[in-house]
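Q: I'm writing a short explainer about Glycogen synthase for a general audience and would like to include a description of its predicted shape. Could you first generate the structure from this sequence?
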Amino acid sequence: MKVFHLSVECYPIAKVGGLADVVGALPKYQTKLGVDAAVIMPWYDRPFVKDHSFDVVYEGTFFQGSERLDYSVFKERDNILGFELYLIKIPGKLDRQEVYCYPDEGEQFIAFQHAVLNWFKAKAIVPDIVHCHDHHVGLMPFLMKYSNEYNFLADVKTVATVHNGQYQGWTHWSKAILLPGFDSWKWGLLDWDGLINPLAALIKCCDAYTTVSEGYLEELYVDANGLQHLFYDERHKSVGIVNGIDWDIWNPDKDYTLIENYNLASAFAGKLKNKQALAQQYKIDPALPLLVFIGRFATEKGADLLPDIILDLTENFPGRLSIFILGAGDPAIQARVKMLVDKQIENFDVFFGYDENLAHWLYASADFLLMPSRVEPCGLNQLYAMKYGTLPIVHRVGGLKDTVIDLENNGYGVGFDTLKVADIRKAIVRAVEYYENRSKFEDNQHKIMSLDFSWDKSAAKYLNLYNQLI
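A: Of course. Here's the predicted structure. Afterward I'll give you a sentence or two in plain language.
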């Protein structure tokens, strides 16, 4: 079975969020199951591309509107990621450093999809499955079925995975001239509320769509930034599959980024050594339990609540824990967090930006991970945390509700149902009080480190879906 995953992110080539982690892991685990899985993504001017060997396997040309675009298809030579990796390079379009935030990114995504189709036609490539990740590649199923030039792919089965339904790629109809010629009678499949909506087109035209947790699938039926009725109407072809984590990368016993490796038997002591080393560089007290937040400074992630939460803990729960924040994003949120740093709050520190090695170190050092997300389709941070013996404190939404069962319900984490600062503080206090019972806390560490959130189970579910479609 030949499967192509199409995405604009893939770890370790280009990562902005959890999409990259999924696309960097799922094909590898599918390959272990005997699937001939590959990833196609844009070429980026980034270290991975410069540091590895690539062969040019095809060069071609197409017109995007009146603009002639030349493109090259690069294949990573050694399959170092455990699957075939193809990069599409288009000078002036797909040859930049960043993944997002360019004013012409809509045109970039159209060009990427058009180049893939052009390459498939030139080389007579007809896969069994084309797996499209998020709206950036949302036009593929429509163009495969209804484009005049590429409908030789009409019978190829397509799977869409919705990693975040809030972002949809809205495009004005004036941009339709940039698309490959298509059956104009089918224009309604592209349209939603008077705009070309790639995510809507993806859901309408794919053969099956998945979400990254069961809980998020249910949430999309009632809140999907205007597409909730579409998701509900197409529910007959939907399935929720919780993301996994790549144990080759996220494993405290083998993680080369850590100061001290540890396993089930040595978890408490190993985490303490990592925390003590962290305290030598940052303003935390290793004698106190450590609470961390790791993520984007975005309201979606609840990061706007962090300053109020920290001030509330300082006032109402002083001297009981250390706090560390790793993140960047919204300038207004970042400015408020910076004000907290300027206040010289005791046992509190921040790293502005994102550092992959530091993230690993924090998971290994922390006792608690805070996730006050408003929206969390699956969430990977809580899965990483549990693998590293760190107790998650989460808002019960989406995948967080699916994967973190509260201690009060014979589970292993702490949840809260509202985003009121007082309720979040109560959840944190409950976690700290649990931590102070050393034997219970260590037993829970062993429990959460033993949970199976590997990609093995999830990859098998995707394979079952593919087989059903074929």
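A: For your explainer, you could say: The chain is about 35% helix and 20% strand.
Q: Perfect, that's easy to follow.
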